[in-house]
Amino acid sequence: MTSPFPHSWVCVGRVEDLPSPSSFLRAPLTRAGVLVTRAADLTLRAFHAVCTHRGSALFDPSAPEEGTSARVTCPYHHFEFELDGRACAQVADLSPVRIDIALGFIFVTLDADAPPLDEALGESPPWLARAWLGQASQLRRARRVAFDVAARWTLVVENFQESLHFASVHPALEALTPSARAETWMPADKGPWLGGIMPIVDGAETVSLSGRLDGRPFLVPEEDRRVVHDAMRFPNLLTSLQPDYLLTFVLFPLGEGRTRVVASTYFHEGAPPDSHADVLDFWSRVYEEDRLACERQELGQASHSMPAHYTEVEEGAEAFARMVAPEKLVRSPRSSSRLCGIFGHPYADLSGLIDTSSFDTLHREITRGLAVVDTSYTGGTLKWMGVCAPWVERDPHRDAMHAIQAMSRDEVAELASLGDDDDDDEEQDGSDDAPDLDPGDPHLTFGDETDRPFTPAQQRFLEQRYGVYFPWKVCYHLLDNDRWEDKHSGDGKDFSDEARSVFPATVAFVESLPFVEIGRVVIFGLLANDHAPAHRDSEPGKALAIAQSISFEPSRGAPGAADRHKRFTLTAPDGSHEHLVKAPIYWFNDMDWHGVHADPWFRYSVRVDGVFEADFLDRIRRQMRQR
Predict the structure, then answer these.
(1) Same domain for 326 and 352?
(2) How far is CA 617 from the centre of its chain?
(3) What is d(CA 30, CA 295) in angstroms, rounded to the nearest whole number?
(4) 533 and 478 co-located in one domain
(5) Domain span at 275
(6) Cα(182)–Cα(530) distance, rounded to whole angstroms?
(7) Fewest CB within 10 angstroms: 108, 120, 124, 302, which?
(8) Are residues 464 and 589 in the same domain?
């Protein structure tokens, strides 16, 4: 067997796998294998496991794959070699293999001309650098288990790269890290790494049988202690960094349709030994579930050849497939017109899960409340932000920042004069947060959730003098959010006193929704004959697989509103067709293009962003699969 990875830097294990002088391990990168050693000087080295006398393999296939030994002895003529590769008799020293270390992982390459590891490593996921995984780490290996999977290595990696199968294959894992909350991470350099992030449900501390730490110290800083981070480094390293332990999977193809998986578990050196079983037993079950799933797929693909079809939440698996053979990857002919959707449907109608009997009361309260509170414009910089559908970019509606960028210095200064007085603000609160304004600065920006939000006066000025279009001319935040990236976090946030006073029933309804935390609550209103252009809030593959939010339209439960509802639509990526949302309360995937058609009356909805309760997410999934 020639090496399946002849030119790549390939992972063979971690530094903790060779803890002391005389340690060795074998990696089946060739038929005879590659020998990795730690000699008396503590240096890690790698060699072809082939005797330099007459070319005999130094190890029989049944020999241990790791262990300790003072020397390596050829079984044919008993020539011996030190662990630093030196021959003990009149034969040549062992043939070296290039070796290097990164993030505590040991890599080797059989290619003498391959670039150095620090050049080839690529942009590694940031959480690996934040964790304590380097050569001086405090990790200790608790278990190493090697097993064969009757499936090609690419299927094993693809299985690792997606969580869509959790609910059907790993119910215990799905209960602790729900697949619908998973994020995909892709490096900016499009290098050999791919990653994923899965929040741990409330009520659990980690992923194990009990869900408890049981005295195991954390391996990660505080910011990473409520999530699981998975990462794949092409071609053969899979890692799963938990708050309190590290899982690694090193893959070695053994021929057509068979893969050796070496799975290791590492804890902090201070972890109580009697706490290991809670983790090890949990993952033993998951390993077996994955093995069976991969073997079923190998059996099916060997029986009937067909191109792979990836759903929009399997972007990690698809990205890996492109690494392997981009020219062979075939997408569904419908892929350019398919919505990301919710569990295979354009959107989730939540009216069967949430009581909407109060909507007539809410409609009356909201329409009266909007008449007495101060509202603002929003959406005037969508084109400049680059979030609009391609066909929207060509329409004549003018964007606020595009208008500002075309202004003279004096015109920008006139616009700025209609803003908040920074000096007055400093006198009132002692702060100096707003940056100094230079009207001639080409990088000066205004708009929603920026350092210089528009004032109502600036918005009307832009609209009336420069023809800027603001879609939502009625926008009111019941629970405010300053930064877009923070809209799902409820940390330090609460409903305003005015919101509780003017919209008490609406606030009570929102607080009753099945969220673990709420990060933003906004009423979005469109005036008569206004429309909301097709846009998306996040790009597929670069944000939450399905960002969690609930939108509701109380007018749909108000008899007096007749048919004066929003025509809220979800549009296919290529613009070929639309799905009209008719539900009074719903969850849509904001990676899909969405917008609202113009109608000759006022329309509004309430958008709530946050994090769902795990049970509620399961109920949605079950409901969608029954349809």
Answers:
(1) no
(2) 18
(3) 24
(4) yes
(5) 126-332
(6) 36
(7) 302
(8) no
